[in-house]
Amino acid sequence: MRRHELSDKEWSIIEPLLPRKSRRVKRVDDRRVINGILWRFRTGSSWRDVPERYGPRTTLYNRFCRWRASSVWDRLLEAVSEAYDGDIVMIDNSCVRVHQHGAGSKKGDGDPCMGQSRGGLTTKIHAVVDAEGRPVRLALSAGQAGDAPMAARLLETVTPGAAVLTDKAYDTDGIRSFVAARGGWANIPPRIMCEGTFAFSRWVYRQRNRVERFFNRLKQMRGIATRYDRRADNYLAAVQITYGRANTAFSAPTS
């Protein structure tokens, strides 16, 4: 097995999640295809630079897009989140620079997940993770977009009694009310300008390093740390497969 390729254990868990429809032609080995897709995002190379041992680059790209359209990568992330620990959840985001090859039209016009910020043309990855650092929800937005507006969409998974850990960027009355309405507790450090007194535990807040570790591990993949994909759905699928592969082996239920 080469570096970054699927181990036998990982493949045994991922294989049942893949489609089995036959197109009346000899099927290209799925494991080899996924290894080629992972190689591309791990190195940040273009599809045409993927080594020939993984097969034709058109097969890799077409299979990646076809499985994205049929929600295969969504199911991979769901396999990770099946072990979701709802007692503590953390939400945060991280900006990635958009490469000129991924910009497409001028200044990213037409793509709501690209925008001009201090770092240039950027995309922001939003994530909700549990106490073990496993991703529960993922979404994209433009780099200059605010953090708080995405919170309500991502925190729909909050269960009664859960503690939601965020940084000061999410310190709004709307987020606190949203979490409280679902029976949760928003443990957010109040900003200086914030009026009123809120319960805040520094000890519990220390656990928020899990979400920081999530992004640190995610950005070890060079094809994720810089966005080369013009399509936002392709880039989000890349995030799902790269991190889903890294966590499926220990998070998926055993039979």
Structure, described:
The relative contact order is 0.17. The radius of gyration is 19 Å and the shape is globular. Strands 1, 2, 3, 4, 5, 6 and 7 form a seven-stranded mixed sheet that branches. Helix 2 crosses helix 3 (57-69) and helix 4 runs parallel beside helix 11 (232-251). It contains eleven helices and seven strands. With 255 residues, the chain is α/β, with parallel strands linked by helices.
Provide the descriptors you would attach to this structure in a database record.
7 strands; 11 helices; alpha/beta; 39% helix; 7-stranded mixed beta sheet; globular; 255 residues
What is the averaged pLDDT score?
85
Give the terminus-to-terminus CA distance.
25 Å
What share of residues are in beta strands? Answer: 15-25%
Q: Give me the number of helical elements.
A: 11
Rg from alpha-carbon coordinates: 19 Å
* Total count of strands: 7
Secondary-structure element order, N to C: HHHHEHEEEHEHEHHHEH
How would you sum up the global shape?
Answer: globular
Biggest β-sheet: count, sense, barrel? 7 strands, mixed
Q: Helical proportion? A: 25-40%
The chain-level structural class is alpha/beta
Low-confidence region ranges: 249-255
